[in-house]
TrEMBL record:
Molecular function as annotated in GO: lysophosphatidic acid acyltransferase activity; O-acyltransferase activity
CDD domains xrefs: LPLAT_LPCAT1-like (cd07991)
The protein's name in its UniProt record: Phospholipid/glycerol acyltransferase domain-containing protein
Stored InterPro entries: EF-hand-dom_pair, LPCAT1-like, Plipid/glycerol_acylTrfase
PANTHER family to which the protein is assigned, alphabetical: LYSOPHOSPHATIDYLCHOLINE ACYLTRANSFERASE, PHOSPHOLIPID ACYLTRANSFERASE
Keyword Cytoplasm assigned: no
Sequence ranges assigned to domain Phospholipid/glycerol acyltransferase in this UniProt record: 38-148
UniProt similarity note: Belongs to the 1-acyl-sn-glycerol-3-phosphate acyltransferase family.
Native organism: Arctia plantaginis
An annotated GO BP: phospholipid biosynthetic process
Recorded coiled-coil stretches: none
């Protein structure tokens, strides 16, 4: 019964896009499941990319199980999707296992449809493909999506407009178009069959060439890390991936010397330019690394062009952010208080106005207002514990404790 309804659902889906003013053009020919059990689609940039499901005759998509409990989810069920269970720690391995079983099965499964980037991008490049869909080592068919419109109303990333606004903007256009192109089937070599990451890279290169865009070796996790760093105002946040790579090369990520330096002599009185502003030689001396091209690049990322020096607390805070990626934000804030306030974790109003925009994403005016509100006795200084006690009672600071089980959820006042 489900299979009999698929052509009807595909027709309704295509008509719904057309009714919304978006014409879908298909180029090339979709290979059969026997020729290519897996379809790899890129770039992924919008929720409107779901039109690919109708264009590929209801191929099986990979979808979170919790997304199935709505109207759209019921329709997706007709694709016989591969479910991902967010709460299952073995979800990734189980998903790969399911993809391998379907791709190599003799049964008449639909083709598996995968967006290997794992997240939405702005289509300016192809980021690193996740290797999950390449583990079976079977032939795949690359499929590209383009939106050749004068005005971009579809790109849905973490920095852009929300889904409802994009949908409204798209619906108000007189005409929008989407181009889907089926590229020739890609047959893996023996080496690619043994190395899914190599297979994924080579397929990405083929698709990037067809699209006329570059590739960028960033993963979904890298993009999420950079977005988080920018949101919090972390110094060097837009280059946090590169900073982390250099720290790994220099052994700093392993030794985490920056976390030890945070409790040293930098805080507690603002040691002044001789202490906090450093040149390349002093920068590398403090980190215990040689002055070479790697450490020089690390220095250059944080250097202030006007002085040619690095404000060392900025680097320490970025390094702490990278070292504490999976820790609660309150722990990063604790290190920030150490960097600016010393072992006592006590900062002045001016120091708090420096650290809060750098790790809480607060505007300077909001940071000053928060300091005055938290400094209940008007002493002109604030300890970490005092600020935490204040923040725990304010709903607007709940994001500090969102992943910290040791704190109660703040209540609005």
């Amino acid at each position: 019964m489900g299979r009999a309804l698929k052509p009807l659902i595909c027709c309704i889906g295509k008509l719904s896009y057309l009714a919304g003013g978006m014409a879908i053009t298909i180029r090339g020919k979709q290979a059969s499941r026997k020729e290519a059990p897996i379809l790899v689609v890129a770039p992924h940039s919008s929720f409107l990319d779901s039109c690919i499901v109708y264009a590929t005759k209801m191929s099986s998509v990979i979808v979170r199980k919790e997304s199935m409990d709505n109207y759209v989810g019921k329709l997706i069920n007709y694709t016989q999707p591969v479910y991902v269970w967010r709460d299952d720690p073995n979800s990734r391995q189980n998903t790969i296992k399911e993809i391998i079983e379907r791709a190599t099965s003799k049964e008449d499964w639909p083709q598996v449809l995968i967006f290997p980037e794992g997240t939405c991008t702005n289509r300016s490049c192809l980021i690193t493909f996740k290797p999950g869909g390449f583990y079976p080592g079977v032939p795949i068919q690359p499929v590209t999506i383009r939106y050749p419109n004068a005005r971009d109303t579809v790109t849905w990333t973490w920095e852009g407009p929300g889904a409802l606004k994009l949908l409204w903007l798209t619906l108000t256009q007189v005409h929008s178009s989407c181009e889907i192109e089926f590229l020739p089937v890609y047959y893996p070599s023996e080496e690619e069959k043994r190395d899914p990451k190599l297979y994924a890279r080579n397929v990405r290169d083929v698709m990037a060439k067809a699209l006329g865009i570059p590739v960028l070796d960033y993963t979904y996790d890298d993009c999420r890390l950079i977005a988080r760093a920018k949101q919090l105002g972390i110094p060097g946040g837009t280059l946090s991936r590169e900073v982390n790579d250099i720290r790994n090369q220099l052994g700093l990520a392993r030794s985490q010397i920056e976390l030890h330096l945070a409790t040293g002599t930098l805080g507690g009185g603002g040691g002044g330019p001789p202490t906090q502003w450093v040149n390349a030689e002093e920068f590398t001396r403090r980190l215990g690394v040689p002055l070479d091209t790697r450490s020089q690049r690390l220095f250059d990322i944080f250097v202030k062009r006007s002085s040619g020096l690095v404000y060392f607390p900025d680097y320490l805070l970025c390094a702490a952010f990278l070292s504490l990626q999976n820790a609660p934000l309150s722990q990063l804030l604790s290190y920030a208080f150490k960097v600016w306030g010393g072992a006592a974790r006590r900062v002045s109003c001016a120091q708090f106005a420096e650290l809060a925009p750098r790790c809480l994403g607060l505007a300077r005016a909001d940071a000053l207002a928060a300091f005055r509100a938290a400094d209940l006795h008007d002493r002109g200084h604030l300890t970490y514990d005092e600020f935490i006690s204040f923040a725990e009672k304010k709903a607007e600071y709940s994001f500090i404790f969102s992943s910290d089980a040791t704190h109660q959820k703040p209540k609005a006042q």
